[in-house]
Amino acid sequence: MAWTLTRPTRRWCSDVNIATFDDLLRAAREQPQPQRLLFVFADAALPEDSTPEQRARFQAGEGGALVPLMSVDKNPEDLETFASLVEESRQFGQDWAVVFVAGLSGRDGRAPTSIEADQSLQRMIDAIKTGAFGAFMPFDRHGQPLLIN
User: Fold this and answer.
1) What band does 29 get if pLDDT is binned at 50, 70 and 90?
2) What is the domain extent for residue 131?
């Protein structure tokens, strides 16, 4: 699946205007039910069966396939800023280009369990592998939201 990144001026999530990752973090903390944020870090890779044109585009920084590299779930209260998430991701030694984020809402005042988070993360990973990532918010390494075409 070929992809290109563009920067939106604003991204809407429900009734919340999300212009940066920190806006998303703030919105998650303000939800009536406890939230768990799900993160899938991905990078671009060139498929083995790529054409010369696709290889040239990839060398120019466009196209390729998004490949999930690692995932984690966090309570919004355990994450101070996007910079702290980036710093934590460095511990795993994998360079990434995009982080996809989704929220998982709790019920009856209880946060989602680790099992629920793991199942949801696996569904996110599977969706990203097939290019079905429209339900997730992608951010670049600077915490800016992206549109992926």
Assistant:
1) very high
2) 5-59+67-148
pLDDT tens readout for residues 97-127: 999 999 999 999 998 998 999 999 999 999 9
Report yes or no: 9 and 146 within 8 Å, Cβ to Cβ.
Answer: no
Closest listed residue to residue 117, CA positions, set 84, 67, 78: 78
Long-range contacts of range 24-33, CB-CB < 8 Å, 24 or more positions apart?
Answer: 24/101, 24/137, 25/76, 25/79, 25/81, 25/82, 28/76, 28/103, 29/76, 29/77, 31/103, 31/105, 33/105, 33/106, 33/107, 33/109
Mapped onto helix, strand or coil, the DSSP state of residue 66 is: strand
What is the DSSP-derived secondary structure letter of residue 27?
H
Assess contact for 126 and 98: CB atoms under 8 A. no
Total domains in the fold of the chain: 1
